[in-house]
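G., the chain you wanted modeled:
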Amino acid sequence: MKIAVISDTHLKPGQPIEMLPAPLLDMLASSDMIVHAGDFVSMQCYDELRDINRLVGVAGNMDPPELRHVLPRHTTFEAEDIRIGVTHQGQLSVTDMTGLGYLARELEVDLLIFGHIHRPQIHKSGDITLLCPGSPTSPRQSEPSAAEVRVEGGRVEVVIVNFEGEVCDSIRFARSLGGD
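Predicted structure as tokens:
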């Protein structure tokens, strides 16, 4: 299973999804599903992403009330026996992942996807992987980015994909989950 992961798109009403980088749009369409970790900023962005592919999302701090009524603050789902959690703002620090580690354990997930910091990060906290895909439209101290998560046979592979300059696998983390 291939999951396209994005966050912090910050597309205002009237700004079409086509404002996202073309390689990202291709990635979103060719994946099995999209996960958005909040801050769509408009119902239009949410609706257009749902038109592209199956979408799992959470509300972010910049999302309008209409989206906050539709989307949860946190959610979990299964992808081939891997439990995945999604939240927007799980911490205030870009370096201390302690709060996110506790949230992941509370949600009982193997992988916790989060947003808000606009900077891609992959962090291992014990047997849990924490992932922030960054932002494709308003990155902070990084290039525009998203992430691709591949789940197969109890194994999770996470790749951060940058969208300025050469599209590359700038950070790669894979691990086997389960009895290995």
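The longest strand covers residues 145-152.

Shout if anything looks off.
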